[in-house]
Design a protein that fits this description.
Elements lengths: L8 E6 L1 H18 L5 E7 L3 H9 L5 E11 L8 E6 L9 E9 L3 H11 L5 E9 L12 E5 L5 E2 L15 E4 L4
Parallel strand pairs: 2-3, 2-5, 5-6, 6-7
Antiparallel strand pairs: 1-9, 3-4, 8-9
Helix pairs in contact: 1-2
Bound molecules: inosinic acid and magnesium ion.
Length: 180
């Protein structure tokens, strides 16, 4: 599923080679910044898992990993940004150097919620690494310490990102054709 471009795809935004190259660069930066420390990567299921495993393989500092999952929903007035933890981490993060690994930061609501929840557990440090950043749609300001790519205001799939749970396994990131 990695080389053939599907009919529902408008165009490939980032190829497997570009993604691999960029992840190596970001991992090198993380390795430098976390030298001499153990980094606990926390990944948000399911979209971030592809990025997490690719990133982790290139980080030279010792790495631990843990996972959580969230569900997003709208309140009665239809306002976005309501998030809750559906599956929590297995272990405490107190005193650890935590790097939250995200697939995409869009409005920022999800990240703000997660940062608040994790900061309350007294990690030694807490930083954010996102695969994609769509800064043009940001509603709440959130700190992003590492990003692989800035993307335009179009819905994208692949490398973990889904549309109705499909396309996560594409090796590239692509813009979907507008739905008819
Ligand atoms: P935020 O709370 O608006 O920042 O939402 C981030 C979440 O929305 C991500 O973790 C994704 O699950 C989802 N999302 C936002 N944009 C896209 C996209 O272009 N493709 C797939 N999922 C997206
Ligand atoms: Mg997500």
């Amino acid at each position: 599923m990695t080389t053939q471009v599907l009919p529902e795809i408008e165009r490939v935004l980032f190829t497997e080679e570009q993604i691999d190259q960029r992840i190596r660069e970001v991992a090198a930066q993380i390795s430098q910044d976390y030298a001499g420390r153990v980094v606990k990567l926390i990944s948000v299921l399911k979209g971030s898992v592809f990025f997490l495993t690719a990133l982790a393989r290139h980080i030279e500092a010792p790495v631990k990993m843990d996972f959580l999952s969230i569900s997003s929903f709208s309140n009665k007035s239809g306002a976005p940004g309501m998030v809750r933890i559906a599956k929590d981490l297995d272990d405490p993060i107190e005193g650890e150097d935590v790097l939250l690994v995200e697939d995409i930061v869009d409005t920022g609501f999800t990240l703000r919620y997660l940062l608040q929840a994790l900061a309350g557990r007294a990690p030694n440090s807490l930083a954010v690494c996102t695969f994609l950043d769509r800064n043009s749609r940001r509603i709440v300001q959130v700190p992003v310490d590492y990003r692989c790519f800035e993307i335009p205001d179009r819905f994208v799939v692949g490398f973990g990102l889904d549309y109705n749970q499909l396309y996560r396994n594409l090796g590239y990131v692509a813009v979907m054709k507008p739905l008819t």
